[in-house]
Known about the structure:
The chain is of the alpha/beta class and about 325 residues long. It has helices spanning about 5, 10-15, 20-30, 30-35, 45-50, 55-65, 80-85, 95-110, 110-120, 130-150, 175-180, 195-205, 240-255, 275-290, 300-305; strands at about 40, 70-75, 75-80, 165, 185-190, 210-215, 230-235, 255-265, 270, 295, 310-315, 325-330.
Amino acid sequence: MGETDSNPGMLLEMSGYYWKTCTLHAGVKLDVFTVIGEDALTGRAAAEKLNGDADGVTRLLNALTALGFLDKSEDRFSNTRLSSTFLSKDSPQYIGFMIMHHYHLVESWHRLDEAVLSGKAIRGRMSFSDPEYRESFLMGMFNLAMGLAPKLAPKIDLSGKHRLLDLGGGPGTYAIHFCKHNPDLQATVFDLPTTEPFAEKTITRFDLSDRIDFIGGDYLEDDIPGAYDVVWLSHILHGEGPKDCRKLVKKAASVLNPGGFIIIHEFILNNSEDGPVFPAIFSLNMLLGTEQGRAYSEQELSDMMSEAGVGNIHRIPVDTPNESGILIGEI
């Protein structure tokens, strides 16, 4: 028996790790990092700006300092480079929306045992819920995609392709970066009508309104107008069960021109479904929030593509922080 096997410390650390998570969540929810900004504030001064209790706020700031998210000199707290870059709303690299999305998931995750035994969701889908939750979800997806899309777009050769469909594309982040990297490319984002204001705002921000349009609809129920050279499905299959996934992949393949690509970006499990860690745990998140959603293995996704008449299926090597992967095939 190794040292790890005989020491419960790792188990206790993992069991109590949510204390650290909740501390970060509180800091982001209260907007502590934006309030501090470029200043160095005492706990009392921060509490006044937050309209909070001086002792409670100071304890939170001390804990955030212990976690490495703030610096403390004498009795004044300031942002670290990390928090200034990613946790202050004044930064273009702010990821607080995704952190708030995680915060909104906490209530369901502490009931995971119920979901496992019942096999049924505990919460509603965040993309369908109230405006605050929907904003955190959509803009959180935007946060993540903004970090990934500029790195992924150059790895996929779309030369000679002119029309791209970003199916379930939300704010249109991937469509934007594919168009930026491919000057001859035009794109359509297809998603729920409630998503359109977010997409229009993002597309306008990048000055691409003349090359990217939006079609509102339900991708499971509605027909997709037009013909395309590329269909991009990023993180939408995990929200559906196997039957609807096959339907989606067939629908995507049906609007492709000959020689067109279908590209699936997902948290892909290995074929024994017991790893990597993030896709395996993410599959539990789908159990908590959807009727049939789950993570899929590379073989399952490849089979869906083959059934839709897609050939030359292969995986593109990408390095992402959340163990996502990309499969590409050709009609």
